[in-house]
From TrEMBL:
<dbReference type="Pfam" id="PF21130">
    <property type="entry name" value="YgfZ_barrel"/>
</dbReference>
<dbReference type="InterPro" id="IPR048451">
    <property type="entry name" value="YgfZ_barrel"/>
</dbReference>
<dbReference type="GO" id="GO:0016226">
    <property type="term" value="P:iron-sulfur cluster assembly"/>
</dbReference>
<feature type="domain" description="tRNA-modifying protein YgfZ-like beta-barrel">
    <location>
        <begin position="239"/>
        <end position="303"/>
    </location>
</feature>
<dbReference type="InterPro" id="IPR017703">
    <property type="entry name" value="YgfZ/GCV_T_CS"/>
</dbReference>
<protein>
    <submittedName>
        <fullName>tRNA-modifying protein YgfZ</fullName>
    </submittedName>
</protein>
<dbReference type="InterPro" id="IPR045179">
    <property type="entry name" value="YgfZ/GcvT"/>
</dbReference>
<dbReference type="InterPro" id="IPR029043">
    <property type="entry name" value="GcvT/YgfZ_C"/>
</dbReference>
Length: 322
């Protein structure tokens, strides 16, 4: 039975397990898989390993992000885990150029189940199944039955990729901890971690979503799709937008791609675009792309439902001129 949503994130349960059907997987396999990825993504694919994941964006030639994902190695394959909508946009683009390399690229979303969670009960179960837990941010532990990625913001927590058989065992063992995916989404938002869905795919240069602040761009690596635009955005200071954390009172269901308006005196003008939304019972969390100079005391509202207002919350990292 799924736990009831808490009123606020301050009432987060000590043990949490969220099924994440909104996330998907792309696997790459073949002797040139790393070399191929290196020419496609914003981060250094050579730094992916069986022990460490990295955040990266996959862009078009204009530098707009098809998708965002965490990548790591599992068995003899490269794994990309991100929102299904973004990955669905990336898959045909990756396959288009993959025909020229010794690499097989496929959607494996339905072959595994993805979960997010935290707490002592989950950690004990993971140690029993995997033998060890990742101890640092983006460290990976794995077995033939799946993999674990650790995140340290806003608290230690784990993203799980499990075979269906092991997933059934997990849901039975932690039945009392199962909760709505909105809780994991709210934690991602508090961590300032963006996602790209079908509604926001091919809309934003990675820096507009703070990907550089999350170490998701390597500016020293060689060429990749969109690299010229991403580099110019950094070195010429052309980025005028950034992702902001917003919070509103009450439960409001906004969708990625929805428009926000910014209050200017007694008037309102277009303020930005929703990347993700996590409605709880008494508060709603958003991550949204706004003007980079948005003030900390700014008030925003939903264009579609003007009574829904939101205030700016602090990011857990610093933004620079990239």
């Amino acid at each position: 039975m799924t736990q009831s949503l808490p009123s606020t994130l301050t009432e987060l349960p000590e043990n949490l397990l969220c099924p994440l059907p909104q996330l998907g997987l792309i696997f790459l396999q073949g002797e040139e898989q790393i070399q191929y990825l290196q020419g496609q993504i914003t981060n250094d694919a050579n730094q992916m390993s069986h022990d460490t994941a990295l955040l990266a964006a996959h862009c078009d030639f204009k530098g707009k992000s098809w998708s965002l994902f965490h990548g790591f190695l599992w068995q003899d394959q490269s794994v990309l885990v991100g929102h299904r909508g973004g990955l669905a946009a990336s898959l045909p683009e990756l396959k288009k150029y993959g025909v020229f390399s010794k690499v097989d690229i496929r959607d494996t979303s339905d072959q595994f189940r993805l979960y997010g969670g935290h707490g002592q009960e989950l950690e004990q179960w993971l140690q029993l199944q995997f033998g060890s837990l990742p101890e640092k941010h983006l460290e990976v532990s794995a077995s033939e039955h799946g993999a674990i990625i650790r995140f340290d913001q806003p608290r230690p927590r784990y993203l799980l990729m499990l075979t269906p058989q092991l997933a059934d065992t997990l849901e039975t063992a932690l039945a009392d901890s199962v909760a709505d995916s909105a809780l994991w989404q709210a934690l991602d938002i508090q961590a300032g971690l963006p996602q790209v869905t079908d509604a926001t795919s091919n809309e934003f240069v990675p820096q507009m979503m703070n990907v550089h602040a999350l170490d998701g761009i390597n500016f020293k690596k060689g060429c990749y799709m969109g690299q010229e635009v991403v580099a110019r955005t950094k070195f010429l200071g052309r980025n005028k937008r950034a992702a902001f954390i917003l919070k509103g009172e009450g439960r409001h269901e906004l969708n990625p791609g929805d428009t926000l308006e910014l209050q200017l005196g007694e008037n309102w003008r277009r303020g930005g675009t929703v990347l993700s939304c996590a409605p709880l019972t008494a508060e709603t969390w958003l991550l949204a792309v706004l003007a980079k100079d948005t003030e900390s005391d700014a008030v925003l509202r939903s264009k579609a439902n003007p009574e829904q207002q939101f205030s700016v919350q602090p990011l857990p990292y610093k933004l620079d001129d990239q």
